User: Fold this.
Amino acid sequence: MNYPYNDDAMIYDAKRHQYVLTERYVLETLGVNLSLTLDTTGDENPSTLGQRILRRVSDFFYRYIYAHGCNKDFIEYLLAKYPPCRDIIKDCLVDEMYYQLRNGDFFNCADVDKQFDRWVSPTTRMRLQEELPNGICLLYQGRYNVRNIDYRSDY
Assistant:
């Protein structure tokens, strides 16, 4: 299998270098039809609101990870190409979607520093602190010494 790849659960946004959940997968896993659940009042293009919200959740999930370390390029590479990361991303994005639907949007909070830890669910935070099979932790705040990798050459 070549990574990253698209399936019924997630698509890989090559421009942003991020996986994004599909609306169909949110419906299957959470039982939530985003087109019926989200308030489209005043939205210029309500048919795309669900996908825009899913991209936003993905964007903040990835930002949360990158904010914790010094090796953004290496972590980005792992998230795109290392097979164990794909399932972690999928599980965490589902958790994040559920967290946002239940608790509201913390992303627009006025006190960003105070609310930073609330951007992600406690479940996601714990999952990202677990060590991967290769010994890497996605929320490691230090710097990994890594070999030269041709970042973004095929993802």
